[in-house]
Design brief:
The chain is α+β, with helices and mostly antiparallel strands and about 375 residues long. The protein has six helices and 17 strands. The structure holds zinc ion.
């Protein structure tokens, strides 16, 4: 399957295979001899893997109305292995990994320890038979995206050519996962740094396909509906116009994208990226938008790494970068795709902890201001 995609690249080749335990893996090749199909990726996983044992469940918290997922099998997953035992590196003789090839460009595969699974056992509709406690099998998908076969690099160091391939992989998976019932939202994200809970250092991200609308998305949709009822206008279009008018929180205004610090930023370092066009998801981006993003996104991550340079800290700064895509279903036409990047670092050597107010009652306190965060980021562009 070949696709001519952006100005930044000639071709990528998409090859789909099955791993030994039946999980799906997809290669996105952007280099020769694989991109043109002159050579073919390894199609066979020769490991002896047990069948998927994961049967995650979820229960609705009667006090908040939110679903909580339970995936006890994840206790067994690989935790911060050495580079020689990294399961995301290419396979070598005597060291077979999750990717049965001696090299790759970008790959996506089903997580071996998913919180949301394709095949799940049925569970009683109510915990303890009590209608107070609804429970369900946690149906959905958890996928891993390897951005490069190079173990000791970072997303910020990828070439625009490679970033463009990652964008194609995100778009391809978003399209496929959005078509699965009962998926309600597809979330592509990267946690970087042990401080954000990373268990593998290899540059990688994840894609979660949730069977319900996550709480943050539900609140965004409610806000967008209320704004539309009140004004007849699009909430995120108005946010973009207001940020342009004020100017003080805008970090970069491009042709198709604007990066800004949100007016009520929660984190000590936080940056949002909004497309100028009202697109619901990554799959809907046109080639000009993808091309600009392929350069801009890694640049944003480099700004983050230099954020505390004036304190002698040149990174790597831990971050979470998440693509908020419009939900599939109600509210889809009232919100749009946006990227949220934030760091838990508040100063060189210091972390922001979610303490009593944030963890207990969900009220956020920020020790800086969005305007100061923007001023610092602008100095790095
Ligand atoms: Zn690795």
């Amino acid at each position: 399957m070949l696709a001519r995609l952006t100005e930044l690249r000639a071709l990528i080749r998409i090859t789909r295979i099955r791993l030994a335990d039946g999980r799906a893996l997809t290669y996105y090749d952007d280099r020769e001899p694989y991109a043109s199909g002159t050579a073919t990726r390894t199609l066979h996983d020769s490991r002896d893997l047990p069948a998927d044992q994961s049967h995650p469940t979820m229960r609705r918290d009667v006090l908040t109305g939110e679903w909580v997922i339970f995936a006890p099998h994840r206790m067994d997953r690989t935790h911060l292995p050495t580079a020689a035992r990294c399961p995301l590196c290419p396979s070598r003789r005597g060291a077979l990994t999750e990717i049965p090839a001696d090299d790759y460009d970008v790959v996506v595969f089903d997580n071996r320890y998913p919180s949301l699974a394709a095949a799940v056992d049925p569970v009683p509709a109510w915990l303890d038979g009590d209608p107070l406690w609804p429970q369900r099998p946690a149906v959905g998908r958890c996928e891993v995206v390897c951005f490069t076969s190079a173990h000791s690099t970072s997303f910020a160091e990828l070439t625009p050519h490679r970033v463009a391939t990652v964008i194609e992989a995100w778009a391809d998976r978003t399209r496929a996962l959005s078509a699965i019932t009962p998926v309600s939202q597809v979330f592509c994200f990267e946690n970087r740094g042990a401080e954000t809970g990373v268990t593998l250092h290899h540059p990688h991200g994840q894609i979660y396909a949730y069977p319900f609308m996550p709480p943050r998305t539900e609140r965004l949709v409610a806000q967008a509906v209320a704004h539309h009822d009140r004004t007849g206008r699009d909430l995120l279009a108005d946010v973009l116009a207001a940020e342009w008018r004020a100017g003080v929180r805008v970090v970069h205004q491009g042709t198709s994208w604007t990066a800004y610090v949100p007016a009520a930023a929660r984190w000590p370092v936080e940056l949002h990226l909004l497309p100028h066009r009202a697109v619901p998801d990554l799959a809907s981006l046109d080639s000009a938008e993808r091309s600009e993003l392929a350069t801009l996104y890694p640049a944003m991550l480099r700004w983050l790494d230099e954020f505390f340079a004036d304190q002698g800290d040149h990174g790597p700064v831990p971050y979470v970068a998440g693509w908020h895509q419009a939900p599939i279903g109600p509210g889809r036409d009232l919100v749009r795709l946006y990227l949220q990047v934030f760091s838990v670092r508040r100063a060189a050597g210091k972390l922001k902890y979610l303490a009593g107010s944030e963890s207990g009652v969900g009220v956020w306190l920020n020790d800086t201001t969005p305007e100061r965060i923007a001023q610092r980021l602008r100095a790095l562009t």
